[in-house]
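Hi there. Long-time user, first ticket. I'm pasting a complex I've been working with (about 1312 residues overall). I'd like to know whether the download I got is complete or cut off, because the file seemed smaller than I expected. Thanks.
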Amino acid sequence: MTDILKTQGLSRYFGAVVAAEDINVTITDGEIVGVIGSNGAGKTTFINMVTGYLPPSSGIINFGGQPIGNLGPRKLMRRGLARSFQIPQLFLELSVLDNLAIALSAAEGRQLNMIRPVRTPERISAADDILEQMNITQYRNEMVTAMPQGARKLLDIAIAMLGDPKMLLLDEPTSGVSTDEKYNLMDTVMEVVRRRGLTVLFVEHDMEIIQRYVTRVLAFASGVVIKDGAVDEVLADAQVQELVTGKRHQPQTEQGDV
Amino acid sequence: MLTIWAILIDGLIYASWLFLVAAGLTVIYGVMRILNMAHGSLYALGAYASASSIGWYYANGGDQLWIAFALLAGCAIVIGAIAGLIMERGVLRLMYGRDEVLMLIVTFALLLILEDLMKLAWGTTPYFAYQPYAALGRFNFGVLSVSGYQIMVIGVSVVVGAILWFWLERTRTGKILRSIIHDREVSEAMGVNVRRMFTMTFVIGAGLGAIAGGFTAPIISVVPGIGVEVIVVAFAVVVTGGLGSITGAAIGALIVGLARAASIHTMPQLELFIIYAVMASVLIFRPNGLFGQATARKI
Amino acid sequence: MGHSLQPKSWQRTLLGTATSLAIASGGILGFAGSASAQEDTFKVGLVTFLSGGASGPFGVPAAQAAETVIKAINEGTLPAPYNTKGINGLQLESVVIDEAGGPTKQVEEYRNLVQRQNVDAVIGYISSGDCLAVSPVAEELKTFTIAFDCGTPRLFPELESPKYFFRTGLDATADNVGAAHYLKETRPDITRVAGIQQNYAWGQDSWNDFQLSMKQLMPGAEFVDNQTPQIFQGSYGTEISALQTNRPEIIHSSMWGGDMEAFVAQANVRGLLDQATALLTTGESGFNRFKGQAPDGTILGGRGPFGAFMPDNDLSEWFSKAYEAQHGVPPSYPSSKMAQALLALKYAADNSGAEGKPSDEQLASTLKSATFESVSGTVRMALADGHQALQPMYYGEYYYSSETGPELRNIRSYSGACVSPPDGHDAQEWIKSGFPQADCN
Amino acid sequence: MMHLQKSEVLLIVAALVLGLSSFISPDWLVFTSTLAIAAALVVMGVVMLMRAGLISFGQGLFYCMGGYAVGLGGRFLDVTDALALIGLGVLATVALAMVLGLLLTRYREIFFAMLTLAFSMILYGILVKSHGLGSTDGFGVVDWSILGYQPAQGHESSTALWLAIVLALAAALFLNRYFQSSLGLACEAIRENEVRVEYMGISRRQVLYINYVIAAALGSIGGSLTALTAGHVDPTMAYWTISGEFVFIALLGGTGHVAAPFIAAFIFILVRTYAVELFPNSWQLILGVVLLLIILFLPKGIWSLFTRKRRAEA
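Hi, the file is complete. Here it is re-exported in full:
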């Protein structure tokens, strides 16, 4: 197994505010890693830096053995690094099919063609495939505005997968999705991820989701990685419980209550 | 040396006028995100109100300067505020939530309507209300002279700027408005009555436009079309300074005012370009204007 | 904020219906409009500014003059030789169109007038750009057209062998040559001359012609400054300072209308007009409006013998009275010029020898090189191969007293042959080469 | 390989009907139609930008360049062929747009609007200062021919109309394809969400740049046609109110279909003509009210009347 993503001393400051500091993370091919941390702990800053949305103040990012610190999202996508968003980033006034067709034409590098329709038969069938895998075929011809939040999240992730990425960063895939729906959603996504053999890094607030779907966890607090390791080990850590999950005294109170 | 003094004085005079014209525009934009093209028409409305009231007063034997000034400011503010209220309640209110640029076109339609309504109300003959301008006389500096009235307009402009600053920075309403400027959705969620604030802001912005026209009326001859002429200039000042920023409007007005005065005194041929040249060069280096802030998309 | 921003379905239906109705009625109007005009009326299109900054000082006074004169023509109440009813017996009917919108739009409106509304003749155009754009179309459509006010000297040189297009006034060259003559006669000792012109073709042409004429007539004079504020700028504080720093004795200005009046008022308060005398080539339009705002001695022109410069004759006396009675103020020069154009039309129709409605050809050949009586005296269509009026240029000094009102003193006139280049001469070349063939006595 | 779509057939039929009707239409209508088509070409450019989320208050810049290319080419280069003159305008315009595009693609919203306005007004200023070109009065366009055919007297209007129809049809057919193409959709995607576009691996600036240059070329053709038809050019063509008029027409029609700018331009010119004639003193008021009603009831333009009916049927 080779390293796919490696950061060294990655930091980001906004004026005097430390958003992320000295982050050293190595992720190997095929891992599924969770990122936890309270609001403002630096998770999204970390993802934004890795995907080129935010230039780091200092530090090195290697992806697939190459330094990528100063490449933007566009070039990183071309190298196989894709992401989804906490708030789905979709083209609301376009149909679901068009959302996918644009992504597909971009993945082919034909985004500047101005004569051929974007909806070629090949792209339509590719789009239908991913819609089916994601279980959102029913919205195929709707505007994105007509979709519920869970379906939007799935479409957002589906688009991220279209460029045939090596690694996928999911930013809070279940936020804004009802409790009933979220396992369905995650099952669908993880099924596709497994079938494609992707490396996944995902930010999540919900510890049950973390426990259920990931093998390794990075815990963020105040811009620093305070713990990096196997799920059970990290969640059991006292510091993590105090700063991240807020469950420090929970076992006792639970007992007391019952 | 003479020329440098003249440039400074003339630049300041022009800047104070620009600030008066631009202040209402930038306040409305800051709070409501509406770039009001009808601002020029409100300016013209104020000018007509002031010119006709002063004309009426002097034609009926009035000779008290302070009454003339009270009429000038009072009529302009009242008519500007009423027009603003009608525009906001009658038209803009129906359009909230639409695209920013579509709102621009809505106000363009209002401009067309107001231009003709004013023509129907006041006719096309130029109105002249020179008495207050003439009465304040002039100060001589060698061959140069400065009109007392223009000095007074500088004062008015400073006072208006100070009141606006105090209102936005030191009052409760100002605090609410700043919260709307900062994040409208959050303020709405926190129980701010955004619609009422919008009405108030628009009425105040409209009143400011009308005051600018009211104080300009004694200097110029008030004719159809003066509103259209000031819009682009006011836009340029506001965009240069940064939309929605009072300080920006003031600094933008100073820069444009001084640049224009310098060009008129040294290269009058360039006067036609100078405002656009200043705006374009500021935007090239500061894409959001001098005091403007970029808004990033939430992801 | 709860309700939807989308229009409700009934609103859409309503608007759909309204749109269809609007388009349909547009079509019907189109057909109604193209029905041919009645035989016993003569329909004239009047094009003049009804909106924008030129409407107040020029467009509307001209339209008002047209109203007065057309009424009198139809009632037959004009003085001789125009004391017959109608024009060649036909009642005169007018269609008024706004001149705003630029030359392209005016070409479109001109075609609409001629081809859709079937007007028999067109009188109009204050803007030089509109005159230049419309004149070839008038020739193409073979429609008798009179430009009553526009002043560009390029009009006839650029219109090859005109047949249907006429101008019953002088061009701007005459204004500025006349102005230089007036200065030479009344102020031979001045040395420092400055200018302030609106920044567009009219202002640039005027200043050029004036400079060239001064170099010929008063070679000792020095041009110390020329300011070019934008049109309709309204406030001239900075320009006035710049003029003051250059200490001129004479300030030439071709500014017109509200701009001109505003400049005079501001320059007066700032003391600039104590230091220098203003020479206003279109100043007459402010004659009745300056009150005390223009200092005594300010030099005014009226673009020829118009407005306050109208000579005493039956027509001008009638016109001044009728206009003032109807509109409350004495006529200014744009009013006189419109009256003159209508009188030219009546003259051409009455003398065309046509039975009933005269054709465009008959009107054109009658007016060509004609001599007719007008509010400005006897007009000879002697320039541009008989298509433009040759008239004297007048200048005078403005004096005002609150008891007697405004008056003009020290009026001088310069014959048409003195201030206008003869046919075949480019205006600027003619001035540069020292006014060949000019007759100034 | 390329078979015709239904709306393409309709466009071709509409063009033929319009062209043939010129034989029986009164001359003023032929002339007005030509101007409306010319305006619609410029508006198509505005619509292209609008689909990418950009409002240009300076499309008059290219409209004016196209017009002046016709005027200057005839006057100083002795070119009299209409197509050559139009080509000249397109060349000059594209060259300028390629330079301006480098800067303008960095701007959005009101800043894009104001910068385009500024550039247009700078051209206006230069032309006003160009005394040799007649300053604000402008100058006349020479008599033109087309591929050696010199329209006989009385046939200029219909020749110009045919020329306009052919060019507009070509532009409409191209745009119809363009709007469905990858690039066309990428423009809409940029309007909707730039972040996602960038994460898809699409360069926003590249897309906007190409879109801007094509829109400029269309503006130039519209300006050239106007100049050939009206026979006169003047700096007003670059004044911001003219650009505002194009935005007005674009909103009137909506961005839904390539035919929308044409319908809107016809309606606009007819409404204005009748308003000017019937209410010479308050035609702006009428225009303003019409505009407000459209925005209020048809926020997606007149074209939405057609799509709604179709959707209701389906």
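A couple of notes from our side: The radius of gyration of chain B is 19 Å. The mean pLDDT of chain B is 87.
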